[in-house]
Amino acid sequence: MSTSDPTASPTTFDLERRVDSADTTLHNPRYAVIALGSNLGNRLETLQGAVDALADTPGLRIKAVSSVYETEALGGPEEQPNYYNAVVVLRTTLPPHSLLERGNAVEDAFGRVRTVRWGPRTLDVDILAYEGVTSDDPELLLPHPRSHERAFVLAPWLDADPKAELPGLGMVADLLDDLGGEQAQGVRRREDIRLRLPE
Predict the structure, then answer these.
(1) Of 20, 124, 161, 177, which one is the catalytic site residue?
(2) Is 190 one of the catalytic residues?
(3) 2, 8, 18: which is closest to 106 by C-alpha?
C-alpha cells in the first residue's frame, strides 16, 4: 500500500490494487470534480499529497489532474500568501456525503485549521460537482456555489476537462470566457511546476 496518504493506516488487503482496478470493478461510477487549494507551507507538496490521498481511496478513480494555477487570496485577512489551485476529475461510487467526509479527512491530515473565515489554509478540498446530484444541504451545496464566478476554479477545471459543464449554468469554457478568460482575476498558470497523475 502506498505510504503517500497521511490518512491511511496499514491494512491486510491490497488497497492500491483495488483502487487501480476501480474502472473495471466499480458498478455505475459517477463523474465528480474536486477543487484543491493551498496557501500555507509547501503548497505544491500539499496539493500532490492530496491527489495521492484521493487516489488511495477505495471506490474512487482519478481520471485527470489539472495544471497548477496561482492566484492572490480573495477575501479574508489581508496579506495572505498566494494560493496554488488545481482541479481533480474523478469517477467514484462513493455517495456525495462520503466523498465530502473523505475530503475533510484529507484536509485534516494536512493540518487544516478552521478558525478564520477565508483565512489562510494548508489545504482546501471542495466538491465542485457530482454527476446527477444537486443539493441545498448547507453541509454540501451542489454544484458548489460561486464556482461560476471564480476563475481560479474554472481555469483549472477547463484544463482538466475541456468539455466540462457546470450543472445548471453552462459550459465551463463559456463561463470562464465571461469572466475574461484563463488569466481573469489575476489567475496565472504555473508552467514550471505540475502535479503527477497517480499511476
Answers:
(1) 124
(2) no
(3) 8
d(CA 16, CA 196): 16
Q: Considering 43, 61, 91, 121, which one is annotated as catalytic?
A: 121
In this prediction the pTM is 0.83
Is the CB of residue 175 less than 8 Å from the CB of residue 148?
yes
Which residue's C-alpha cell is 464556482?
Answer: 147
Annotated active-site residue 56? The verdict is no
Active-site residue (options: 112, 188, 189, 190)? 112
Along the chain (199 residues), what's the average pLDDT of each consecutive run of 10 residues?
44 39 63 96 95 96 97 74 96 96 93 60 93 93 94 97 95 97 94 91
Which pLDDT belongs to residue 8?
Answer: 45
The SS3 assignment for 20 reads helix
